[in-house]
Amino acid sequence: MNDDTFLRIAGLSVGYGATRVLEGLDLTIGKGEFVALLGASGCGKTTLLRTIAGFVAPSAGVVAVEGRDVTHQPPDRRGMALVFQSYALWPHMTVARNIGYGLKLKGLPRASIDRRVAEIEALLGLEGLGARKPAALSGGQRQRVALGRALAVDPQILLLDEPLSNLDARIRLKVRHEIGALQKRLGITAIIVTHDREEAMAMADRVVIMDAGRIAQQGAPEEVYNRPASPFVAAFMGAENALTLDGLVSGGTVHVAAGSHNATVAVARAGRALASGRLEARFRSEAAEILPSYVIADQTTAALELAGNVEAASYLGGAWRHSVRIGNEVLFADAPHPFAAGATVRLRIPADRLFLFNLPAAAAAPARAPLSPPADLAPRMAAERVLAAS
């Protein structure tokens, strides 16, 4: 175990009957670190959290805290506290009694419980609400009570199972900031399960992206957002636009071949493990610039340009999202103003915002012969290349 490791998960496997949910999973978490388990429904993130907490027994593997094997210890012997998605508050108990429930189970004297409950109420902004019952509270207040009950027992590790999913969007933004700030102030080790990538990036020091019971990628929020390790991670982190290109890798450069709807372009390999052949290119809608077909683009930076036609535009608040047909694909791109349906446009994606991956051999069709751009755009794109070279 490394000196920085506080929680160690090694070779963890969990199954329900013949269904395998986790398979040989390894993960280490440092003391005071806030880690987000991020993934779609069914990826195994909640099972992992509940296995760490002791509510699910693994078929193999180890869960250890500070070098102490807790794999087969009951939940109350692990030094952890879990905030459930449903909050699981006792409806017949007041706020104060809900917060102090774990302390009562420990057999603490009433005076000690009252003192600790008052500290937690002050910490979470629940002063004056101690006599209320959960039905008389707002969603945000109930969430704070559930958090307070977990913190009251002074756990070594705080586990959060999608604690914000029952809150509306406005309250969710406020509460996630409060939880993140509180975790930093207390210095407590915390793990949150969420399917919301923005929530994970805003709250956690490290994001662990899960897929089919395995870790697809982990790292700082900025790292997994800007350097996704696979098409799956890129898509999950918002790069849902995808198209297939042909590329030739030469040293530190990837030469993207001209196709039926794109001109050739050379982009930096940037340390990516790429080989010549069919490539999957992904990008986010906000990364693409939409240009009228007659506008000469800035050629000072490398960019992939795609010729297509606008199908529709919708206003999202702050930007218009366009669906643009590029051959057989429909891609999405944002712009500050709308383009009319049917307009002939170019999508320009800067090379540093383009994610490239080799297609698996089974998915890679034979390489296409390079084709010219559509006739109506070919003269303009050729003219731009001449201007850029002059």
Features:
390 residues; alpha+beta; Rossmann fold; OB fold (Dihydrolipoamide Acetyltransferase, E2P); 2 domains; five-stranded antiparallel beta sheet; 20 strands; 34% strand; disordered C terminus; nucleotide-binding
How does this model look, in words?
The chain is an alpha+beta fold and 390 residues long. It folds into 2 domains: 5-231, 3-Layer(aba) Sandwich (Rossmann fold), CATH 3.40.50; 239-389, Nucleic acid-binding proteins (OB fold (Dihydrolipoamide Acetyltransferase, E2P), Beta Barrel). It is built from 10 helices and 20 strands. It has helices at residues 45-53, 95-99, 101-105, 110-123, 139-152, 169-186, 197-203, 221-226, 231-236, 378-389, and strands at residues 5-16, 19-30, 34-38, 60-65, 68-69, 80-83, 157-161, 189-194, 206-211, 214-219, 241-250, 253-256, 265-268, 277-283, 289-292, 303-315, 320-326, 329-335, 344-350, 355-358. It has a 6-stranded mixed sheet, with helices on both faces. Strands 13-12-11-14-20 form a 5-stranded antiparallel sheet. Strand 9 and strand 10 (214-219) form a beta hairpin.
The multimeric state of the shown protein is single chain
CATH class of the largest domain: Alpha Beta
**Average pLDDT rating:** 88
Supply the CATH architecture of the largest domain: 3-Layer(aba) Sandwich
Give the structural class.
Answer: alpha+beta
* CATH superfamily label of the largest domain: P-loop containing nucleotide triphosphate hydrolases
Major β-sheet profile: 6 strands, mixed
Shape: elongated
Strand coverage percent: 25-35%
Low-confidence stretches at least 5 residues in length (pLDDT < 50)? 366-390
Tell me roughly what share of residues is in helical segments.
10-25%
CATH fold name of the largest domain, please? Rossmann fold
Query: How far do the termini sit from each other?
Result: 60 Å
* Number of structural units classed as domains: 2
CA radius of gyration is 26 Å
Q: How many E-type strands? A: 20
